[in-house]
Amino acid sequence: MLFLMLCATQLMGQAVSVVNLRTELLVNPVGIDVTLPRLSWELKSSARGVEQTAYQVLVASTPEKLSGNEGDLWSSGRVSSDVSVHVRYQGTALKSNERAYWKVKVWTSRGESAWSSPANFSIGLLNYVDWKGRWIGVDKPFPWDSETQWSRLSARYLRKEFEAKKAVKRATAYIIGLGMYELYLNGEKVGDQVLAPAPTDYFKGVKYNAFDVTSMLKPGKNAIGTVLGNGRYYTMRQDYKPYKIKNFGHPKMLFNLLVEYADGSKDVVVSDDSWKLTGNGPIRSNNEYDGEEYDATKEMPGWNKTGFDDKDWQKASFVQEPGGTYEAQMNENMKVMATLKPVSIKKLKANTYIMDMGQNFAGWIRMRVKGAKGDTVKLRFGENLQASGELYVRNLRDARSTDTYIVKGGAQESWEPSFIYHGFRFVEITGFPGTPTLNDFDGRVVYDEIKTTGEFVTSNLTINQVYKNAWWGVLSNYKGMPVDCPQRNERQPWLGDRTTGSYGESFMFDNSRIYAKWLDDIHQSQKEDGSIPDVAPAFWRYYGDNVTWPATYITVAEMLYRQYGDLESVREHYDHMKKWMDYMAGKYTQDGLITKDKYGDWCVPPESKELIHSRDPKRQTDGVLLASATYIRLSFIMEEFARLLGKPEDAGDFSSRASAIKAAFNQKFFDASKGQYSNNTITANLLPLVYDIVPEGAKENVVRSIADKIMVENKGHIGTGVIGTQWLMRGLSRNGRSDIAYKLASNRDYPSWGYMVENGATTIWELWNGNTADPAMNSGNHVMLLGDLVIWYYENLGGIKSDPSAPGFKKIIMKPEVIEGLNSAKASYQSVHGMIRSDWKRSGKSFNWNITVPSNTKALVYIPAAAAGKVKEGKKSASSAEGVKFVGMEGDRAVFEVGSGDYSFSSGK
């Protein structure tokens, strides 16, 4: 998204701003490949009850025309509407490499605004034939490389000089650099992205990035330089499980530089065999799992500037294109998002030190070193230490996770890697000349350049630390796609980890673009018959068929609609989701139930802390129950999607499917006399409860079975794995047992999220018993066991929830849980409509609550009170306060509807 903060204009004496103009889903809208982009804006005001009643959008081909209020590409005219999110461009057809400038003004319940400040976007290369030149690279290793299970493949360096003969008006660089690239123009890096572009199944689609480089060109000679790293394109595990692990080839590049001169003429610089190439540069190996080796003695000063002597370089070769469709990258690139200082360095033995960063995260180390030429420093990374103080690496499996730097000698040198990342807290340092100090190192935190949109804190310290751990865990695993872990030889985009996780994450981060991109990845991984893998992009060939993991395809689309109002993702993927639903029902229906399950309730707390998976049948939930219950839930979602898209026949079909399976499900699994399902695991009872499968009149008994299982048999502790935990906290709260949910959230002994904190975790573990089970399975930085915890934090404790009837927080439900033991909660969330805040405290019988509702939205506010007359807003009775309307009583809550603005409610005094 493009954020432009505009100066407030005066409307009827109140400050109102039109801010945060956004084009489609982009942060940096250069080179988008949609010709009908969606435009969004935000209203901001200190006044109450501000509602948009109409808008006008102008889109022009030049800034001058826009300034003159000439919308030569599109003038919407005055449109009577309160919609300010995802307004579809409806103007003149946009062409490749065209730039557009736009602004908006609105009419509100408080008057007409001035025009906003302008925003702009540009169209990328829309068609295959718009790309000129050829793919270049070299499709073989260099003599010093090796291709084995632990392959070593050096980076490719490419360069070309060209001449700008006239005054440049505009220049745009387009690049597809696989597996990863760094682009330079006249010695300066283009952009601040790292590890670009975002990974894909390169046989199906490849992402290009576009950059406005006008200011970087100079009259006369110019030089372009590119470094190509390996990334996911060149799989470093060569000749190792080729039946499982995809490999796409050697690094390669397609490049276009489109130059428009001031006199109207144009030129293009392309990738072809006039470029020069070498692999004999300083990056000797770069492997996401094993690390990067950099030999500073082989640096080539000036290689990416004009005048460099490249006579020893070879001509670049024409190479086969990767096969995938060329696609503009609409999600953010990765970036160094923060820098951490280490907290300690301790000598372990001669020439070996252990450095503690104090925080588990994903990224790398920037090092400063001064030594003799040829000195070799090795940095080996891990999440934990052994009792001896040595680095613990068994959980990395065969990932070597080591960076090597060879010193060139002389002055102090500063280095950080280019094409790898590690998941770590601790670093083993060997070979460092002299004694390393804290000032010699920085931790570089790397994830997608997305904004933190939420903040959350309560009076409970355990909950606060778990939230912090979750935040670090989520950002660590955003890598152009959501991966399961950042440290071991896996790092795969498992679908099941994000079935509900994406929803909770959306409160913490603006994850709309990474998940919209991931839906494309899932679609591209789908087979012709409809099958969807468990990992997408399908870097691993895991097409085993089940319901609970591929369900993520549908639940992520639901999240994007619910949280961001993004119906376009639903529309784009509906047919493919339906195809999968038909495939699973057609292939795996037996006796009216869906029979295929693969993983069960993955990672349920086992009967022994030394086990990874439970072997006790009493803890294991029937796979047919999991598959069938999940399919029912997905049928309800697909029914909603069909109605939203105007497909009544499909909606009726999905409704019928759900009803039929529901009847067979209850007949097979429900024991009405006991009020329990199947073998009475928490998950077996919970899924029917939250998926509206339990027969009328029987819910109370099922809730009692869940409560007894948790509080009696499990002694007040969690007993669910990945599937059950996706609904555990909300399921308890919705059914009157928030007290149990709060206990689970507050526990600090095994098994619990707090147990991880108690044992020094700074992220979320893969296993409830992550400090005692088999080390080969112990990732210290996973997010799958979060389930719906973060959702519960925001919606139930913070009291911030989007009303399903008006997605994207157009209408907000503000209903915080009042739970014994919790005295305050403070949450904020930057929604697509603006900032929402909830800050409540209670003392004795008094309840005080400050809230913020963004402009152009409304909220239903549920305040603990015996009657409406017991509620004040400021110093007035709430019912008579400006912008506040009493709706009615609901149990022990007085319900009010409020418009936008800041409010201070109190009750119980």
UniProtKB/TrEMBL annotation:
Catalytic activity of the protein: Hydrolysis of terminal non-reducing alpha-L-rhamnose residues in alpha-L-rhamnosides
UniProtKB keywords: Hydrolase
Top EC group: hydrolase
Positions of the Alpha-L-rhamnosidase concanavalin-like domain: 346-447
Record-given protein name: alpha-L-rhamnosidase
Domain Alpha-L-rhamnosidase C-terminal: 799-876
Enzyme Commission code(s) on record: 3.2.1.40
GO biological process, one term: carbohydrate metabolic process
GO MF annotation terms: alpha-L-rhamnosidase activity
InterPro entries in alphabetical order: 6-hairpin_glycosidase_sf (IPR008928), 6hp_glycosidase-like_sf (IPR012341), Alpha_rhamnosid (IPR016007), Bac_rhamnosid6H (IPR035396), Bac_rhamnosid_C (IPR035398), Bac_rhamnosid_N (IPR013737), Ig-like_fold (IPR013783), Rhamnosid_concanavalin (IPR008902)
Location of the Bacterial alpha-L-rhamnosidase N-terminal domain: 166-337
Domain Alpha-L-rhamnosidase six-hairpin glycosidase span(s) in chain numbering: 452-797
